Each structure stands twice: as C-alpha cells, then as structure tokens.
Amino acid sequence: MEKQKVEQKSMEIDIGELIMHKKIAKMITVLLQENKWTLSKLSKETGLSFPYVIKKVKEFEKIGIIITTKEGKNRIIALTEKGAKIAIKINEIFANIYEENVLETQAKKEEMTTESKRLV
C-alpha cells in the first residue's frame, strides 16, 4: 500500500517545478510569439532537441498549459488561456531578471487570450 502512494506521487506533475527551468520557460514564452507552432519549428526556434520538446509538450498538455491539434501530418501546438497567462508572467519575470524587453504588449496579450479561448 505504501509503495502505491509513492508511485502516485512520482506521477504527479508539479507545475511550479516544471515551468521554472530556463529551457522550459524559454519554450513557453516562445509560444507567445505566434498562435500555432509545429513540434519541429518549436524545437528549431528554442534550440531544444526534438525528443525533449515532444516530452515537454506531453507534460504541458497534461496540466492544461497547451493544446495540440492535427493539421495534416503536423501536430500543432498552441497555448491555452491558462498557458498564455503563465507564459506572460514568466516572460515578465525573465525580462526583469535579464533586463530584456518584454515580448508582449497589452494588445498582444488580449489577442493571445482571445485565440486561446477560441481553440479550446
């Protein structure tokens, strides 16, 4: 019985732990730039390996940060409303840490939220 509890805990995904790694934060914030991404395009844009991107996309989908759809042979990735809110906050945090410009304007934030609602 105790072993079963340990296994259940290891299967749970901690959203805070997941998104606060720099590679993952980069991947999430890159998704703010466009409404639709393919796995290969996201891998190229972030410089992350294709298998790593696939693994993280599955994890993000489980916790409701992204949604995936099929368009022909391609798997299309987009942020959910929840994912867009998280990505904007991460982007703001990283902009403050690294003194980079925040990618999103208020208009873009609203556009992403509207698009995310439409896709869900």
Q: What would you report as the Rg, rounded to the nearest angstrom?
A: 15 Å
What structural class do you assign from the helix and strand content? mainly alpha
Total beta-strand segments: 3
Gross CATH architecture:
Orthogonal Bundle
Cα separation of the termini: 38 Å
Biggest β-sheet: count, sense, barrel? Answer: 3 strands, antiparallel
Strand line-up in the sheet with most strands: 1-3-2
Short description:
The N and C termini lie far apart (38 Å). The N terminus is likely disordered. The protein has a three-stranded antiparallel sheet with strand order 1-3-2, with helices on both faces.
General description of the model:
With 120 residues, the protein is mostly helical. The chain has a single domain, classed as Arc Repressor Mutant, subunit A (Orthogonal Bundle), CATH 1.10.10. It has seven helices and three strands, in the order αααβααββαα. It has helices at residues 2-11, 15-19, 22-30, 39-46, 50-62, 81-98, 106-119; strands at 37-38, 66-71, 74-79. The chain has a three-stranded antiparallel beta sheet with strand order 1-3-2, sandwiched between helices. The longest helix is centred in the last third of the chain and has 18 residues, at 81-98. The N and C termini lie far apart (38 Å).
Task: Please supply descriptive tags for the structure shown above.
mainly alpha, single chain, 7 helices, three-stranded antiparallel beta sheet, Arc Repressor Mutant, subunit A, 3 strands, 120 residues
